[in-house]
Amino acid sequence: MKATEAVDWVDPDRWRATPAAERLRLLRLVQANIDRHFNELVSADCRAKGIDPADPADAHQLGTSVQRVLVPLPVNVAAAIDLYEGLVSGRPLQPLALTPAGDGRFDVRVSPRGKDRLLNGDRTDVLRVVGEPRRVDPYAKPGGIVAVLGAGNVASSFEMIRALFVDGYVVVHKPHPLNEDADRVWEKVLQPLVDVHAAAFCPADEGPALTRDPRLSKIYFTGGTGSAKAIMEATDTELVSECGGNNPCIVVPGDRPWTEREIRHQALQIATIVTISGGSICGRTQTLVTSRHWPQRRQLLDAITVALRDLTPGSSTGYPGVDQTFTAFRDAYPSGRLIQPVDGRPASQVMVIEDVGTEGFALENEAFCQVMSEVALDVAPDAGTFLPAAAEFANDKLLGTLAATILIDEDTKKAHATTVDRTLTELRYGTIGVNTMPPVVWTNPYLIWGGNEEGREFVSGRGNFGNLLGFENAEKSIVTSGFTSPGHLIMTSKRGWLALSTRFARYAVRPTWPRLFSLAFAAIRTGFRRTGS
């Protein structure tokens, strides 16, 4: 239907009056529909991304497709079911812990919980909130109509579930042109919500008409900064947006030497996040921040080269326009090394630019493709000196405020706990991963995802998505895991990645004990597969 007709269809007053028990019933119908249309959703995403599901050489890219389309929205549905089961029973979900964080801030531990604790036993997920933690129930929010504008790189708009069941809005969804096929499947999946006038869909070319509709309360947008600014110029409706940026990975020199196993693990984690989905994900690491004087700097950089070339499968870069971006980085840094993964996938070269300095093109631009740069700070290689300097650099010199990573071994983290805590407070990023990559936050409905640029130039967006428990004044998400956690995102086997991705997606859709055991078995088998197989 046309945008105007879609806005006509949704009924915010009816949705506000819908009891929690009825909303819970609708969520369970949607969950069952996702299972029913699982393969259809994957096929639609593969067509859009040019992936051949029958080609063994594409097995890892098929696995990424499965995760891309069948984890984000289902994870949010499952969490919303938990939320509404609590509301119906009169036992609302509670935070796992509240801890003062200094400066009038608190850390609210929100996950992992339930079965997920078995998957991520060494992980702690907290919301950093400003002031005394206060919560707002979904039914206490004003409601209204939200337009959700789908992203181009991910064919799964979990913002719809968050808008409906966390924020209390009804939703009109407009897909990105790349994902119209998948959106038609999602419309079938979400038909129970359409039937009760809580959701509606309109075509990709209806964006201007939709965003200018005066009946909208808000617009939820994921995409480029330029597009977000154009929307803001065209309408007075509030835009809640996530627009990416140049995300740093701060490598903290250890009080002790890292072992070869630790170096290899971190190299694989970095290589995976740099290349997955052809580099076209918003939360990927783009800039390593190191100490020029760290004795193991060269060892880590060489290990990353080996990981990119020999140990991780090549992922094709196919997002529209990124070939021009890649060329622009190549022109700006002709001495940058081009690394071709050993499996020879087309359009899978990775550009690595070492020691780019503390000013220039590589810092001021988002790649959104397989480009990784390194900034070697002329700072002493001890955590107490390096971390504050690295945080200041990341805050002042890199584009955007979306996501940052800190890699620090357990011994050094314990010895410099005060410095680490201060750095977590001072880093002006919406998401911080300590020993884990920020995209784990992106799908986590208990946390928030978005920029942290209040009072600064618009780059990474305004507002945030998530916050299932409804805490006011949430400032950032902080996720901490073990230095070499088995839960880290590491891809070394094509068939293993596909098996792991499929079982993870099935568990995300319906988190039952049998699916958890199947996922655990796939993770163990993947750990023993030969690299590249």
Structure description:
With 533 residues, this protein is an alpha/beta fold. It contains 22 helices and 18 strands. It has helices at 3-9, 12-16, 20-36, 38-49, 59-70, 72-89, 116-119, 159-165, 180-189, 191-195, 207-211, 225-234, 260-275, 297-311, 322-332, 361-364, 383-397, 410-415, 417-426, 439-442, 494-509, 513-528, and strands spanning 97-102, 105-111, 124-130, 144-149, 169-174, 199-201, 218-222, 238-242, 247-251, 285-291, 337-339, 350-353, 371-377, 403-407, 431-434, 448-449, 465-466, 474-480. The strands form three sheets. An eleven-stranded mixed sheet has the order 1-2-3-18-15-14-9-10-13-12-11, sandwiched between helices. A five-stranded parallel sheet has the order 6-5-4-7-8, sandwiched between helices. Strands 16-17 form a two-stranded antiparallel ribbon. α21 (494-509) packs antiparallel against α22. The N and C termini lie far apart (46 Å). The model has no long low-confidence stretch (mean pLDDT 96).
Q: How large a portion of the residues is in β-strands, by DSSP E?
A: 15-25%
Overall pLDDT = 96
Largest sheet data: 11 strands, mixed
Strand order of the largest sheet: 1-2-3-18-15-14-9-10-13-12-11
| DSSP E strands, number | 18
Instruction: Kindly report how far apart the N and C termini lie.
Output: 46 Å
Helix content: 40-55%
Structural class by helix and strand composition: alpha/beta
User: How large is the radius of gyration?
Assistant: 22 Å
Helical stretch count?
Answer: 22
The geometry reads as globular
* Low-confidence regions: none
